[in-house]
Design brief:
43% strand; Porin; alpha+beta
Length: 370
């Protein structure tokens, strides 16, 4: 009776969440690929409407169990297919890990080997709160380099998304003996920009709901963008709690942006215990098929100055130059690194000149003030 009550309450929660989705309006598409690799943590943001993204890799793991006196080698592949569905903040995604596990029993010398899915799930993710929806929060402070680069407590306020999906077992899966064909999964994902270079992601998930061995897990990830923003690194901690298996894992790795739609990566990690002890390494890539188009806004609904104001002299030449620089640039146009001290000085100078011009204009406008 208690179990059925819990399931009814969860269905009500899911209904309320998804009924509220149309009332949220955000935009999160970026000019550069936004991949969940090389770690397993899931970002709060979707890939963008009409964007198809493939994230795949090869993995190897050595797993030795001290109590069972076994040694196991696992070879396999990870794949994630992501699609921006209907609107910017909604994403449908498939995640799968298909691998071979070969186990040697040291006591008897016997071997066992099989292929199957250790991860096979489909779900929907929706961004319910975008911390940076307000463009004012993305603007640098031109009066202080320190304010742009030093951690502040308000930076901990995250963007938040919710996830609902299902895990599928095809036939008798040796990784999850006795589990039903379909079980359910729920997750909350958060993402905070601590500084222009550090991003913090957290995931809390309840997996394999409706099985005899439901699984509660967390993931926390900290990534860092180097001065050359084509390169980034990360460190990640994962905790798993279930009657079938419990562990604490750590991963670290690097990613490199080859093109605006192509990223490659490598990562490695280990467990903190010896029942079993796990050491693993993975390498992969992420590719984006970008069919995104910005939604057209009727001119009568646009705000004044939304299109950049009046056309300036030689505007076309400047635009051509910027296009060339983009093609030859770093390929990380979506990474919001703060301006350098030299750039801040230029911004301050331009602002003073602008304010001085306004004062002069006001002084010489011929109006006598009483």
């Amino acid at each position: 009776m208690g179990y059925s009550l819990i399931m009814r309450n969860m269905k009500k929660i899911y209904f309320i969440v998804f009924a509220m989705l149309p009332f949220f309006g955000f935009s999160q598409y970026t000019d550069v690929i936004n991949s969940n690799r090389p770690g397993l943590s899931v970002s709060a943001y979707a890939v963008g409407r009409n964007v198809i993204q493939v994230e795949a890799g090869l993995r190897y793991e050595q797993s030795d169990h001290s109590l069972l006196n076994t040694q196991a080698n696992l070879w396999g592949t990870d794949i994630s297919l992501r699609y921006g569905l209907l609107f910017e903040q909604l994403e449908i995604n498939y995640e799968g890990t298909f691998q071979n596990k070969k186990t040697v029993f040291a006591t008897s010398g016997l071997e066992d080997s099989f292929w199957n899915f250790s991860r096979n799930r489909l779900g929907l993710k929706f961004l319910v709160y975008d911390r940076y929806k307000d463009p004012e929060r993305n603007k640098p402070n031109i009066h202080s380099w320190r304010a742009n680069n030093v951690f502040q407590l308000k930076n901990l306020i995250p963007s938040v998304s919710v996830y609902g999906g299902a895990t599928f077992n095809l036939g008798d899966n040796p990784f999850y003996i006795g589990d039903p064909t379909v079980s359910y999964r729920a997750m909350i994902a958060t993402q905070s920009k601590l500084t222009p270079r550090f991003v913090f992601i957290s995931n809390i998930a309840y997996d394999r709901i409706s099985t005899d061995f439901p699984e509660l897990s967390y993931l926390v990830s900290l990534s860092y963008a180097f001065r050359n923003p084509k390169w980034s690194s990360f460190v990640e901690n994962q905790g798993i709690k279930s009657d079938r298996y419990a562990d604490v894992l750590i991963r670290a790795g690097v990613a490199h942006l080859l093109k605006e739609n192509l990223q490659v990566d490598v990562n490695m990690g280990a467990s903190f215990k010896n029942t079993p002890s796990r050491i693993f390494i993975s390498a992969g890539m992420s590719y984006r098929f970008d069919m995104h188009q910005d939604k057209e806004i009727p001119i009568e609904d646009q705000e004044a100055g939304e299109n950049g104001g009046p056309i300036k002299k030689n505007a076309m030449k400047k635009k051509k130059k910027e296009k060339k620089e983009k093609n030859d640039g770093s390929g990380a146009e979506d990474i919001d690194l703060s301006p350098s001290r030299k750039q801040l000085r230029k911004l301050k100078k331009a602002e003073k000149k602008k304010n001085k011009g306004k004062k002069s204009k006001k002084k010489d406008d011929g109006v006598i003030e009483f």
